[in-house]
Amino acid sequence: MCATSATRDAANADEFRAMVLDTLGVLPEVVTGDEEARLSFTGAVRGLSAQAPYLVVDIGGGSTEFVVGSSSVDSAISVDIGCVRMTERHLHTDPPSSDEVAAATADITAAVDRALDAVGGRGAATLVGLAGSVATVAAIALGLTEYDPVRIHHSRVSYDEVAKITADLLEMTTAQRLAIPVMHPGRADVIGAGALVLRVIMERAGAGSVIASEHDILDGIAWSTASPS
């Protein structure tokens, strides 16, 4: 049982750990931000046929992990700009106002610049995006009528497509986003922020496209369990 950003931050994390122990008989392993980044990278790059080095970004709810490496991790950092956190911090109206989007963009940009400087992300040859926000943007770009992980996995989405989809999502109400065929009901209220994080990463890293990967931290956890060394 592994837990990530939300359990690191939650004020009632002790209650969650107690519930897990009572339910499963074991305490959850709460991974650090660096461990979360490394696990995401391991899951993402296995089987990937693209030019290295890679910049792997895992856009979660509470945080986004930035990892640079080729066959293994060279550097990694986790920053608090997840899609849920950015929505709760900045995007309060439905749809968000231009001032709210501007404030979110400024907050995200500062964090992304700090992360890219820390890991040397601007020198990466290939940007790989993980998790639900990236998968949803890729599904919309592909014009899918239903979620199809096979088509999404290793699809490449251009910066122009990401920018347009982000603008469209931020102009929609939650109800309008729910009408998008590939939209998961639990993601409709936060996908605008998630897409915005992806767009800013691409801008600041100078990436003309992003490869969406359906293999992520869950795969990395599985590999680490199979090969604990």
Automatic annotation (TrEMBL):
InterPro entries: ATPase_NBD, GppA/Ppx_hydrolase, Ppx_GppA_N. Residues 2-220 form the Ppx/GppA phosphatase N-terminal domain. It comes from the Bacteria. GO terms for molecular function: pyrophosphatase activity. This is Ppx/GppA phosphatase N-terminal domain-containing protein. It comes from Phytohabitans rumicis.
